[in-house]
């Protein structure tokens, strides 16, 4: 498995956290993390544009092969949920323009991938991210740590999917009489009736 660059995004209208890792089978290396902070006094559409532009710059700089984003959860405040959904939409649009696959994970799933339990506190996530990525200090702000957790969760998911797919392919080839390329060719070579 070749190293993959994964961009994790924790979207928000005030703070959008990001974390970029390079993941190989044996380790994840942090490339960058931080946050996009649109000025709070700007109109919402201007803040969304800053989020979109910031994500596009990250994509241009790091050229990720996957983007991990926090899935939206239902809030009691409908207006907050809509605003958060719009911030998430900016990330989805930036990814779609470059045809980068998006992987969505619930906050509990990301915490579980990093700490081992979905109910972990923000501080526990930060400390575990620091340990896993061998950072000299806690990743701050918390939104950046959450974004790194999403990237690590995605790395685990992709590694598991690759292992599962490889295992399935190996078991299929053991039972086949023809190689894969020959089977595909024989399907198209048969005369149509």
* Number of discrete helical segments: 6
General shape: globular
Question: Helices and strands: which structural class?
Answer: alpha/beta
Strand content: 15-25%
Number of strands: 5
Q: Which CATH architecture is right?
A: 2-Layer Sandwich
Separation, N- and C-terminal Cα atoms = 43 Å
Stretches with pLDDT under 50, minimum 5 residues: 162-167, 169-193
Largest sheet: 5 strands, mixed
> What's the CATH first level?
Alpha Beta
The spatial strand order of the largest sheet comes to 3-2-1-4-5
Characteristic terms for this protein:
Nucleotidyltransferase, domain 5, 193 residues, alpha/beta, globular, 6 helices
What does the secondary structure layout of this molecule look like, with pairings?
Layout: E1 4-10, E2 16-24, E3 27-36, H1 44-62, E4 66-70, H2 78-97, E5 102-105, H3 107-115, H4 122-132, H5 142-175, H6 180-189
Parallel strand pairs: 1-4, 4-5
Antiparallel strand pairs: 1-2, 2-3
Helix pairs in contact: 1-2, 3-5, 4-5
